[in-house]
């Protein structure tokens, strides 16, 4: 790789993007494909053949030998199966490079081992992948220079068309929000916009640790987080890492990550050190919802792959280190028309912008009515350790609007009119050489899980490792419902102006309880939220049921995003995913405690005892009280460890008595997780006193500060 990166030149060089299509495809084919992409028109088989041929030729020029239907099963990760572009051998023994329209549009990867939550049993295993032509295909090169693959983003469905993946409901929800937003715009006299698409920008947090040290931590290897570990003497209290200068090794890593992403058309833009030592963030520029979801998967995969190349390991887990800041993902979301109107843009005088006010109160209504679903969409095994841990948004959904909008809202509620908007003032720095600049009318509130940030909402609960598909499915659908109800009413109104006016006031009043601008991390908020009747759902397991409650099923079926069966299957998959993850964690703990920690402590205790004897032999007058004390303390903690370990083993033996799915998930949450915490306690105390040379794995300090 050369030293100089020409961003403009390499950006998107491996993407079958609009420019490539325009250049390569016959005009008629290009036009037809555009119609499919923009208007959802069905693609003709002959057209698909032409596109497939050109796509293959282009990919081969880029070095590709295979193609893959790239899909997102319900595992949180992506899946791929590679097929070479070859035809059956000719009589001459040669082969041709082939790729048909049929192969482009539809695949049948079988893939029956992916979770289907009962939608699919292995004996009726047909599963299909279908081309999502609205997310561009790209070539991904193996960094070792050993070949390249054409990636075709797809949706993954069962034989009966039921969604088995993240993508299918996402695309359905995008259609729902499109249709309802257009209805709303038409009511306000907009006759020109033809399509509304959610714009999504994802800020991704992650940790980097040295790979050699990582490999010595079996808990990290097996579960992605540390199951043991005492706090280092220094944490994040000095804030010297946050936004600090980026060290050379990390800088080199980031450079390679950016280069890989840019080539694949991911607009990686912002990078900085995050709050915790060893923690960083990467944010691309926002894109269309489904493309942003695909790109976020590419970001996560690229971070992992490039880290490997730099002898680093990238931890995407939400809480790799207890007591240290965890990682999340901020999901920035807005609605934008094909002709560039952002429905979330308040303009300079929001009180006069009736359409904006209606959109805003519709969103408040949606979030208030479906707070449980939004919470569920961010539920992930790892996120249970992060949400509500005084450094991430709490498990309570609320909305932060900012001073200006809150003021407008309270005018609406109290008088039914909004007569004025607070203006952003001038910011005086007091430094002559720095020009004064106009202040935003809205400050920020970092503790809010759902904050309005000028022209978009930022949902900050999402876990760092999770797919962002489901939060966006929920956002799109709940807002589509709110818009639909609103349009149902307003389309019948005799006096539109009056009706809008009344409706805004009604929604603002009914759903004001969801608005909160104070400190979301405080205990007082937990109490206040309770008084307001807002749900506080602390764990993933408790949130899953909301997918299938009647209110949710009705909404999802109304907008054709999920059927009841699909929702039930998803709930089942989530319960199982939780149980499996905690099962692995508990087994890893048992393994590490029995085979590494207890033997190490025994060695240490034995060494202490031997030392006491030897010192006494040398001189009966010598003081061995330090060794004696340590011996007593270490032995006591050793006993405590063994007892807690046995308890965990016993509890784990009870798993099999519970039915798979919900019952097991609850058992893991209520019985196994506390037993794990009890085992961790004495071990972390032991780590503080046992000779470092004898401790069987690198410490938090080694992992966080020696990268
Ligand atoms: P922050 O506001 O969190 O400091 P940025 O303003 O840089 O950071 O935006 C964070 C993310 O939000 C980026 O991915 C950015 O592209 C995205 N973003 C900006 N404007 C919008 C918008 N209107 N809709 C959706 N995402 C947006
Ligand atoms: Mg942000």
Report on this model:
With 707 residues, this protein is an alpha+beta fold. Helices cover 47% and strands 12% of the residues. It has helices at 7-10, 18-24, 27-39, 45-61, 101-105, 167-187, 211-215, 218-223, 248-263, 289-309, 354-369, 371-377, 403-415, 469-490, 496-510, 523-532, 540-544, 550-558, 564-618, 625-653, 662-689, 700-705; strands spanning 64-70, 82-84, 106-107, 127-131, 138-141, 148-158, 196-210, 268-273, 279-284, 287-288, 312-315, 329-337, 399-400, 426-427, 437-438, 450-452, 457-459. The strands form three sheets. Strands 7, 8, 9, 10, 11, 12, 13, 16 and 17 form a nine-stranded mixed β-sheet that branches. Strands 1, 2, 3, 4, 5 and 6 form a six-stranded mixed β-sheet that branches. It is globular, with a radius of gyration of 28 Å. The mean pLDDT is 91. Magnesium ion (MG) is lined by residues 203, 330, 458.
